[in-house]
Design a protein that fits this description.
It is built from 10 helices and 25 strands. The chain has 384 residues and is an alpha/beta fold. It has a single domain, classed as TIM Barrel (Alpha-Beta Barrel), CATH 3.20.20. The protein has a 6-stranded mixed β-sheet with strand order 3-2-7-23-24-25. A 6-stranded parallel β-sheet has the order 13-14-15-16-17-18. α6 links the parallel β16 and β17. α1 crosses α2 and α2 packs parallel to α3. It is globular and about 60 Å long. The chain starts with a strand and ends with a strand. The model has no long low-confidence stretch (mean pLDDT 96).
Amino acid sequence: MESFAFYSERFVLPGGVFGTGYLPVVDGKFGAFTTERPEGTIVDASGKWVAPGFVDTHIHGFFGHSSTDKDAAGLNAASIELARHGTTSWLPTTFTQDVKDLGECCASIADTAESRGSDFVGARIQGIFLEGPFFTMKHVGAQNPAFLIDPRIEILEGWQRAARGAIRKSALAPERAGSTEYIVAATAMGVKCAIGHTDATYEQTMAGVAAGASIFVHTYNGMRGLHHRDPGVVGCAMTTPETYAEIICDGKHVTPGACKVLVNAKGWDHVVLITDCLACGGMPEGEYTSGGLAVVMRDGLCYLRDSDSIAGSVLTLAQGVKNFYDWGIVTAEQAIRMATEVPALANGIERSCGSIVPGRDADVVILNADLTLDATYVGGSLVR
């Protein structure tokens, strides 16, 4: 593999933006940033941002392929197309499904990740996010209500065995019976617990946080909202500075003004930009199936076919980063970190992605001055 170095005036590195200088890539790994020109090939990114590849920690699929299809070729195709759109790491995200079916999905995702060779140039699978089935009917959203159940750690243990340890995050409604015990046990297993699709009170949600839950699933969407006499789940997200809050950054699920409220309440460094993208992301408008439910994609959104309920987005994380910057909510550097370092930290995968660190896989996005995507590199290889 050819060694080279990026040149730019703006490198998003741990601790700040550095430049003018060079970032070496040797055998697909990052070297140390330097102001001295190294020998060999120089990739000129003058006037552009050199940043870590984007990390999407809540995404159900892309380019016609779902995380739950149990199809290695499809998952690889989705990963390649995600990389072309700037996402170099992701957590394939499941739905509310039958327990046995979910175990099979976990095994298939793990098999796919383990079977990839070092020459695979696509978004890396950094683990699995189980979105369900421990939710409430009131906020079931586009999840299948037929499979809603109470959380039990024995179920998670079975899924984790099938996944060979790949499960990173599990979502639940904290008002369901057994949720506190589940959160304590799952956290002890090293699985992050996320609160979502829930009608819990502020007090019930705080109890979940006290037990170890540390992430809020697509904040505002699928949860009891903020009211001055009932702070609800949103109020808990805003008043627990140690937790992380996901936000779907398409401007449609949540308006820019509401996004700004959340960032002002929590600080940008505890808000995780996500897409919640469905398999039909990157595809033309029309009818599709998502999580076993019929959906219609139109006007940049997916809806349940038989209602006006939003089913999910068709967003790319690169566009979401640009949105947050264009809306004036955060600086360009902060927007980039909210889609790289912050999701990696929130999901416990910061040792493998999210930052440009010497010795780590050289997963990079090159962004133009206005934050439009110019190029993506995975392991030092240009994604074409």
